[in-house]
Each structure stands twice: as structure tokens, then as C-alpha cells.
Automatic annotation (TrEMBL):
The keyword rRNA processing applies. Pfam families: Beta-prop_WDR75_1st, Beta-prop_WDR75_2nd. This is WD repeat-containing protein 75 second beta-propeller domain-containing protein. InterPro entries: Beta-prop_WDR75_2nd (IPR057644), Quinoprotein_ADH-like_sf (IPR011047), WD40/YVTN_repeat-like_dom_sf (IPR015943), WD40_repeat_CS (IPR019775), WD40_rpt (IPR001680), WDR75 (IPR053826). Residues 766-782 have a biased composition (Acidic residues). One of its GO terms (cellular component) is small-subunit processome. It is found in: Nucleus, Nucleolus. The lineage of its organism: Eukaryota, Metazoa, Chordata, Craniata, Vertebrata. It comes from Coregonus suidteri. Keywords: Nucleus, Repeat, Ribosome biogenesis, rRNA processing, Transcription, WD repeat. Residues 761-810 are annotated as: Disordered. Residues 342-662 form the WD repeat-containing protein 75 second beta-propeller domain.
Length: 834
């Protein structure tokens, strides 16, 4: 039994990679970004995720390079810790416990052994006042160290990392908030404040949005909400300061960044254009347009060869010296809302939901990367406010992943609602979906739900609409003709002119339940006969869900009157009912478990239960703030082996849900986290690791193949096998170089592992000499077969025969065997060559 299999809610794959400014390493090979509760290390050339640095227990709020070691980075989190990582090997080196939630982190080469962090003025996450403090990192051999030596630098600062910056090699720090700019000089231990007028009368918005300091001169660049950039000078004396103004952005300046030498200033905003200003000639500027989405952060490599921009669509663009885009790292696209719900592609096991406007995105939860986008609307999207365009509102897959159904709609002022139902067939060659059928105006009103039948016999889609009808669309196979497969409407149903709100198929596809306001109807898809109607407490049906496996006889439904009901389909009666404000009901396709998300004031609760049992398997109060409206069970690649009852519902599938703030969350057990942490710390590869090219060359698999080949080609020889899977070779191949012992120490051990001992070499020569003596004995005709066997006691030619229990050969048979062996067969090889 697992002693403590604690289940906690964590940010999972699909977290925001644009939450904080990314960090480019000194050699420009890697890019690090905060992603939920972890730090991801990407290759700047291949876009692949190299490492996922896990260890924080809350949101990672900042990453900075370690000034004293270019192979290390610091990360901070709202869990109150600062962690030091070796990003090349993905190893956690040290954890500094601060004890306060941390929202930003800064470092300077001039201040060695000190990090500057932004923490609440009161030790509370709900606090709205923040301060910048210097944290002295103690030197200790322990992996976890408490860093309690804090000294305040600035009060009432912004928690946004872009609102503060070090200037002129760390001699001062500038911080902006609202209409105030404050500059603190470390040598003088004095700060100067500069205020701007609100500028409401002139229609200007002078609020500060971001700050960047020149690396070598006394100049501070500030961005403002009205799109202006101000360059501040002479700020070391409060009354003599000056500033000049640059203006190109028509919206707020989101981010600013000087290049390492200070020759250029980079800016970005909602225009999706990277602007490069020449520092010495302020009127000269270059542009890199059409980057796809609003720019939120800009990062520059220490050598200035790479630029990096974060975008509002959860994307990171890597740019080579403001000339061309070299790589794009695309995260999970999160718009204003998810209208298609969350679905799982049965083929790729990818999460499918709304992506770019008019698209569906396929996102791999296992690899935490976007696979591809599918253009549904197939029209150019015009970025103009107030323009009505087609939106994808519904999506559904069949059980095998061969068909995808989508619904798009557009509502224009003064005109009717336009609806298109599209059926997409999966193409094996392109490994994507191809449009097969388009149905214009499939219903007279908005489609509220649709689902495929899980029956393997027929491919059927059911759509329901506010027009009072549900329609069954059937796939007609015309493989014998040139037309191919096509879809057509097979049945149109309704019930007393009531408007349907939801529908659901049973696990075997033999029943279809449709909720018509306050009545649940059960239909037979085979004959479209209305089998029964189920009554329930007052309130319109909000959601329906069939039980699975052993609970397939149950049908569950939620109502707008905060009631959760369960019917027994065998008796057509109400099994049980309980008052619950269920906002979402989700069934696990691989088990009997059902997840119910309930709304309680300003937060959501979760209950996981089986319809046949009165006690829930798992419950979580105050799961997240706001209401959960989208959730899905995703099958696991490898089944968990959790013994504790409270965690067994996570063994086969993993539950994902979207919060009100569009954060993708999931559940993690302590045993699962410990296993992942242990595997990330393992340096030496063991036998359980997947086969690699080095393993094929030097491992047991190659060794066994050589043994079989030697027995077939030369059964008379028994070679001493080289210790190819030795610890010395594994240490050399799999252990990082900087943690290996000296080469002089490993050299002797490595050479000895490759040498053959003199005793084994002499044993190889003995069978050959003994064989020659036995042949001489045979020519005289006086040798005894028993004596010959004793002389060849070490030979591999007789050993296997004795082990297998082969019958003893007569003297004549042995002589004939040796004669055949000595026959010259070279003529056969010459014949084959001809």
C-alpha cells in the first residue's frame, strides 16, 4: 500500500510559455522559458524540448542567467523558493527557501551572491502592494538552504518583471509603476522619483508599461500606454533630468530591450511588428512585420546574434539579428474562449480545441507541443474589430478517428445566422483530415450539441438544434463507384415541439438519449423508435451521460435547478437524486468513473464517483477559482499502479480541465512525481532504458548476436567474450563529462576491460594443437576415440554435443567426419564467382 499518495492540482502541458520573458544562453544554443510549474529548455535550432526542469510546486514567475556560471540559471516561483539549475543536464543544484511568494527576479554581475526579487509587502498572495528586496544567498553544501537575509531596496513596485531593469553594469536600478519612475543608486543608497501627468485632457495615456536601461550609458527607456517611448537622461539629479520621445506604435508599448552593446533598442506591441531603433540616430528604425500576434516580451542573446519575441498566442519566435525568423516554438493557443469543448483525437491522442481564428489545433499532451493546425473555415481572417467572421463552435470525432465533424457559424447584423456542417475524412497519405462533405444550413437554428455513434456497424452522427429537431447523418459507402463516401440525412426527430439541449450515445451505440427541456427521451438508433421517456425533478436538462462497463445500465443527467439524477435503464425509474449545482459532467471512457464539477460561490469543486456506489471515490473542495466549463479524460500511455483507493481513478486515464483564466490543469499523485523526479536525476543508463545506437554496438543485444554467429560459422572455436557491457564503458558513454573522474583514472580501467587475459588466449591455442595431434593419430589408425575425446576436452566441438546428450560416434564415423572437414571446397567459391 502507498502510504501517502497525495493528489494535487498542477499546471500541466499546455501552460503559458509566454508568461515571462524567455532566456537565451550565452552560446545561443538553448532557450529557457517558464511553463507553469516547470522550466522548459528548448533547442534554438531544432525547436525541440531538451529538458523539463521540474521541482517547483507553484507557478514559475521568472528565470535569469547565473552571472558567475554561464551553464546555470536561477528560477523563482510563487512557492517561495529560488532554485539553481544546471540546464545542460537538467539537474537541480540547489534550492533557496525565501519564505515569501516571488513574482520577479533580477541579477547583476556587480552584485555577486545576491539576487533581487519582488515579494508582497505582506506575506500573502492576495496582497496588492509589492517591494523589491535583495536576497543574500548563503554558501552551503546542503541542497536546500534557507535564505532569510533580506534587505529592502524599493517599496511599492510593480510585480511585472518588465517594469524594472538594472542600468550601467548594475550601478542603479529603475522601476516604474503607474505614472511614477523611481531610480535607486546603490553606491549613494539614494533614490529619485519622477512623475508624469495623466494627460487625460489631451487624450494621452502616460502610464508606464515597461522599462529597459542602457547597458553602458546613463539612459533609461520607458514604454507607455499611448505607444510612446521616452529616453530619460541626467536622472542622477532630480531637477535636471531630460527625456526625448520616440513614437511609432499606435497601441501600448508592451516590451523594450536594449541590445548587449547598446547600439539598438527593440520594442514591440499589439501591431505584431518588431521595431529596431538606432540609439545614436533616433529617427532611423527597422521593422520585422507580420509576426502573427501581439508581442509581449523581447529577449536578446548575450552576444546579440539572436533575438526572441514572445507573443500573445502563446508562441515564441526566434529571430536572427532582426533579419529573418529562424524558428517558432508554438504552445497551446489560448483565445478568449473554447467554444468547441475539449476533445481527444483517437489516433494521435492529441488534445483538440479552438486554435487560431477559424482553425482547430491538435496539441500533444505527452510531448507538450502543438502537432498541427487544421484550417476549418478556409477563409482569410481579417483582424478588424467589429467584423463578423465564421467561427468554429463544435467538433467531434468518431471512435476510430476516421471522421471529424465540425460546425462553423457567423451572425451578421440584420441577417440570419449562417451555419455550415463539415465532415472531414482522415487521409493516410497526408496524415491529416481532408474535407469530404459540406452541409449548408443543416438546421434552421444554432446547433447546440453533436456526437458520433460508437457502434462499429454504422458510422452515424447526430446533431441537435434549437429549431426543435435532432438529425441523424449516415455515411453511405459508394466504394463500388467513383463517387466515394458521402453523408446524407437519415432521420429527423423531435418531441412535442420542445427544444433539445443535449444528447448522448450509450457505450455500445444501441441507445440515444436526447434531453428536451425537462424531459429525457431514449431512442433506438436501429429503428428510430422512441423507447421511453424519463421524468426528473423540475428544471431543464443541462447535460446527459451514460455509464460505462459495469455501470452501463445507468443514465445520469444534470438540470438547471441544481439537481444530479441517475436513472436505471432496466427499470426505467429514478435510481437516486441529489441536490448539486453541476456545471460539467464528464465520463471516463476506460472505466466506470464519472467526474462532476460543481460550482460553489467563487470556486469549483470536483467529485469523482461510480453511479452504482453512494460514496464518491475522490472529492476536492475549492479546486480552482471560477467555474470549470471544459474538461476531458485522456487515456494514459502507461497504466499507473496506484494502490491507494483515492488515487485509483487516475490509473487508466488522466483528467484535464480548463479554468476560468484559460489555464490547463490536471491531477498528479506524489508517487508519480517522485518517479519522474528520480528518473530525471538518474545519470547512468541502466538496462531498462530503451535501445540506443550505442547500446546496439556495445550492449548485450550485440553480444548475443555475435555468440550465435560464431557458433554457426566456426563451431570448433570458443572465444572469450569481451566485457562490452562493462561499467567502465557505460560510465564513459552515458555520464556527463564534467562529473566524470580524471581521464588518467579511467584509462587503465577502460583498457583492462578490452584486453583478453593470457590464460584465455592459451586455452584458444590448445584445441588447435590437440586437433593436429589427433589427426596424426588417425593416420596411423591406432588412436582410441575415448583417448581422442580426452585430448580434446577443452574443445567447443565436443562440449555442446555432450551437453545436448548426443550419441557417441564410432571410430569410423569420427575418421569420416575429419576427412570431410579437410576437403578443399575452394572450387565451389570459384564457381559461384563465375
Amino acid at each position: 500500500m502507498v502510504a501517502h499518495a497525495e493528489i494535487r492540482v498542477v499546471h500541466c502541458g499546455g501552460s503559458k510559455i509566454n508568461f515571462r520573458e524567455p532566456v537565451i544562453t550565452n552560446d545561443s544554443r538553448f532557450l529557457l522559458c517558464a511553463s507553469g510549474e516547470s522550466v522548459k529548455v528548448y533547442s534554438s535550432s531544432s525547436e525541440e524540448c531538451i529538458h523539463d526542469l521540474q521541482g517547483h510546486t507553484d507557478l514559475v514567475s521568472g528565470i535569469v542567467r547565473n552571472p558567475s556560471n554561464h551553464l546555470q540559471v536561477y528560477s523563482c516561483s510563487t512557492d517561495g523558493t529560488v532554485r539553481l539549475w544546471d540546464f545542460t543536464d537538467g539537474i537541480l543544484i540547489k534550492t533557496f527557501i525565501i519564505g515569501y511568494p516571488i513574482y520577479s527576479i533580477y541579477v547583476s554581475e556587480k552584485h555577486g551572491g545576491v539576487v533581487f526579487v519582488v515579494i508582497p509587502m505582506a506575506n500573502d498572495k492576495s496582497s496588492e502592494l509589492f517591494q523589491l528586496v535583495a536576497v543574500h544567498l548563503p554558501r552551503s553544501v546542503d541542497q536546500e538552504v534557507e535564505a532569510r537575509e533580506l534587505s529592502a531596496v524599493l517599496y511599492d513596485v510593480s510585480p511585472y518583471p518588465g517594469a524594472a531593469s538594472f542600468g550601467r553594469e548594475g550601478e542603479y536600478i529603475a522601476a516604474a509603476k503607474g505614472l511614477q519612475l523611481e531610480v535607486f543608486f546603490f553606491k549613494k543608497q539614494k533614490s529619485y522619483r519622477f512623475l508624469l501627468k495623466s494627460g487625460i485632457k489631451k487624450g494621452a495615456k502616460n502610464e508606464f508599461t515597461c522599462v529597459s536601461c542602457h547597458p553602458k550609458e546613463d539612459c533609461i527607456a520607458t514604454g507607455h500606454a499611448d505607444g510612446k517611448i521616452r529616453l530619460w537622461r541626467n536622472f542622477n539629479q532630480k531637477k535636471e533630468y531630460t527625456y526625448s520621445t520616440l513614437h511609432w506604435h499606435h497601441g501600448a508599448v508592451n516590451t523594450l530591450h536594449f541590445t548587449p552593446e547598446g547600439t539598438n533598442l527593440l520594442s514591440g506591441g499589439i501591431e505584431s511588428v518588431l521595431v529596431q531603433w538606432c540609439y545614436t540616430q533616433e529617427n532611423q528604425k527597422d521593422f520585422l512585420p507580420r509576426l502573427g500576434a501581439a508581442i509581449t516580451h523581447i529577449a536578446v542573446s548575450p552576444d546579440g546574434s539572436l533575438f526572441c519575441t514572445s507573443h500573445s498566442d502563446n508562441k515564441i519566435t526566434i529571430i536572427q539579428s532582426c533579419v529573418k525568423v529562424s524558428a517558432i516554438i508554438q504552445g497551446l493557443v489560448k483565445g478568449e474562449g473554447v467554444r468547441t469543448d475539449l476533445t481527444i483525437d483517437p489516433r494521435s491522442k492529441a488534445l483538440v480545441l479552438n486554435g487560431k481564428p477559424g482553425h482547430l489545433q491538435f496539441y500533444s499532451l505527452h510531448h507538450d507541443k502543438q502537432l498541427y493546425n487544421l484550417d476549418i473555415v478556409q477563409q482569410e481572417y481579417i483582424h478588424e474589430e467589429g467584423l463578423d467572421q465564421f467561427e468554429v463552435v463544435k467538433a467531434a470525432f468518431d471512435t476510430r478517428g476516421d471522421w471529424l465533424a465540425t460546425v462553423e457559424e457567423r451572425k451578421q447584423k440584420g441577417s440570419e445566422l449562417e451555419i455550415n456542417l463539415k465532415l472531414w475524412a482522415y487521409d493516410e497519405q497526408t496524415q491529416s483530415f481532408v474535407l469530404n462533405t459540406t452541409v449548408t444550413a443543416p438546421h434552421e437554428d444554432r446547433i447546440t450539441a453533436m456526437c458520433f455513434s460508437p457502434s462499429p456497424e454504422t458510422t452515424m452522427l447526430v446533431t441537435i438544434s434549437f429549431d426543435g429537431h435532432f438529425k441523424a447523418w449516415l455515411l453511405a459507402d459508394h466504394s463500388d463507384t467513383k463517387e466515394g463516401a458521402s453523408w446524407s440525412c437519415d432521420f429527423v426527430g423531435g418531441y412535442h415541439l420542445l427544444k433539445p439541449g443535449c444528447c448522448c450515445f450509450s457505450a455500445d451505440g444501441s441507445l440515444l438519449a436526447v434531453g428536451f427541456q425537462e424531459v429525457v427521451t431514449v431512442w433506438s438508433p436501429a429503428s428510430w423508435e422512441l423507447l421511453t421517456t424519463l421524468s426528473q425533478p423540475p428544471g431543464a436538462i443541462r447535460d446527459l451521460c451514460f455509464g460505462r462497463l459495469s455501470c452501463s445500465k445507468y443514465l445520469l443527467g444534470t438540470s438547471t435547478k441544481n439537481q444530479l439524477s441517475c436513472w436505471n435503464l432496466l427499470t426505467c425509474s429514478l435510481e437516486w437524486s441529489t441536490p448539486m449545482d453541476v456545471s460539467l459532467l464528464q465520463a471516463d471512457p476506460l472505466s466506470e468513473n464519472i467526474a462532476a464539477f460543481c460550482s460553489q460561490s467563487d470556486c469549483s469543486d470536483l467529485f469523482v464517483f461510480k453511479p452504482s456506489e453512494p460514496r464518491p471515490l475522490y472529492s476536492q473542495r475549492a479546486l480552482c477559482t471560477g467555474q470549470v466549463q471544459h474538461a476531458v479524460f485522456a487515456p494514459r500511455d502507461q497504466m499507473l499502479e496506484s494502490c491507494e483507493e483515492r488515487a485509483q481513478w487516475l490509473n487508466r486515464s488522466q483528467l484535464y480541465f480548463l479554468t476560468q483564466h484559460m489555464d490547463l490543469m490536471t491531477f498528479s499523485t506524489k508517487t508519480e512525481e517522485d518517479r519522474l523526479l528520480a528518473s530525471s536525476k538518474q545519470l547512468v543508463v541502466d538496462d531498462s532504458v530503451a535501445v540506443t545506437p550505442f547500446y546496439l554496438l556495445l550492449g548485450k543485444h550485440r553480444q548475443q548476436q555475435q555468440e550465435k554467429q560464431e557458433v554457426l560459422t566456426n563451431p570448433m572455436a570458443e572465444r572469450t567474450q569481451l566485457p562490452q557491457g562493462s561499467i567502465a564503458i557505460k560510465e564513459l558513454l552515458y555520464t556527463p563529462a564534467h562529473v566524470l573522474p580524471s581521464a588518467s583514472f579511467l584509462c587503465s580501467m577502460f583498457v583492462r576491460s578490452l584486453l583478453i587475459s593470457s590464460s584465455s588466449a592459451s586455452e584458444e591455442k590448445e584445441p588447435v594443437e590437440e586437433e593436429m595431434e589427433s589427426e596424426e593419430g588417425d593416420s596411423e589408425g591406432e588412436a582410441d576415440p575415448r583417448d581422442a575425446r580426452q585430448d580434446l576436452g577443452g574443445s567447443a566441438a565436443w562440449g555442446p554435443g555432450e551437453e545436448l546428450g548426443a550419441p557417441a560416434l564410432t571410430k569410423a564415423q569420427e575418421r569420416e567426419l575429419r576427412r570431410v572437414k579437410n576437403v578443399d571446397h575452394s572450387w565451389l567459391s570459384n564457381l559461384l564467382e563465375c
